[in-house]
């Protein structure tokens, strides 16, 4: 193939993205924002914010959302699915008590629209408004969330979370609060899941002073039984789907097992994570905890206690539907889309496997830090803006310090592999050349 034909295939957006003058304004989901020195949403991310995969009834993410909502309908929850991805730094971080120097706030981890607005990094960004307006004791939020991250088969800069929360008002229940909590725990449908729960540690994972020991225990128990119900529903469906696809692997006959481990989130105390024993390893599934008093009072809920959790949908959907690569969720290829339909958990049948080709890029980092030192996520972004979803993974494969000059050399290996066609060497070389020149221009590295 000639070079000009090869270039014609390269999307326009790929042209030296870092060097383009930044537009004065940026439009996300129909709203326009002024840009500033914080703006770092790239052209490859912007279109993802319009996709709304969780609202597509025939997409694995949408099917999983509906499965969970069906399990919890009639149990006192309102379902919110339409929140837009741009939120304020106040909603995403401040109100939840993130310290000012929390790494999650940095430009290398988060997509900023400008200094005050960003693409939400988690569904907890909507806790404030949901606690304020929710008409039922509890709610579920499902939404797309965004994080600058590495590139591999389980990481994509956009993914989906489902957040749940439940509150009880002391004013409303008065002296009957504890019996109300006990009755609500009893009302949660039972599962035969095996639970490992090392006793709760008051020193390393303390309860809050505004709650009695008994209240904290009951709210924690309600949270744990609720999440066990969710996990039970989803993972038993995954087993059923694998059985129907003909699998006879031994794990299919084992009872489902989960364990509770201590965690930390700035807006919950105590906090936990639930892990599921799946195909021989513990799978982190969901962070959760008892909501901090401050978050509730900020939302106008005085004298209220409650819990919240946030579960990532993409990795669970990969298990449920047997999807090997997270990029497949975003493909527009009919051979993917036509395999799934509303209400059905089916195992994905790969339509073909196209070979991957690796290219290495090696360089010396500048000795004196330039204005913008190269963060690994910047490199990921350059690769993504250049070759988009044709990149399967990017890995740091070598790093050393020159003994005499003290300069640091790094080598990254890019695996180019399309999910729907064969790539030519010429085409890959063009992408790789663009990645190299972009790196050299934007970060003053010396290519090797
Ligand atoms: N938002 C957290 C995350 O993204 C999960 C979480 C939600 C934790 C609610 C506690 C309460 O990891």
TrEMBL record:
FDX-ACB domain residues: 352-448
GO MF annotation terms: ATP binding; phenylalanine-tRNA ligase activity; tRNA binding
Location of the protein in the cell: Mitochondrion matrix
EC number, UniProt record: 6.1.1.20
SMART domains hit by this protein: FDX-ACB
Alphabetical GO biological process terms: mitochondrial phenylalanyl-tRNA aminoacylation
Gene3D superfamilies in UniProt: Bira Bifunctional Protein, Domain 2, Ferrodoxin-fold anticodon-binding domain
Aminoacyl-transfer RNA synthetases class-II family profile domain: residues covered: 143-350
Keyword ATP-binding: yes
GO cellular component entries: mitochondrial matrix
CDD domains xref list: PheRS_alpha_core
Similarity comment text for this entry: Belongs to the class-II aminoacyl-tRNA synthetase family.
Entry function: Is responsible for the charging of tRNA(Phe) with phenylalanine in mitochondrial translation.
Protein name according to UniProt: Phenylalanine--tRNA ligase, mitochondrial
Source organism: Babjeviella inositovora NRRL Y-12698
Organism placement in taxonomy: Eukaryota, Fungi, Dikarya, Ascomycota, Saccharomycotina
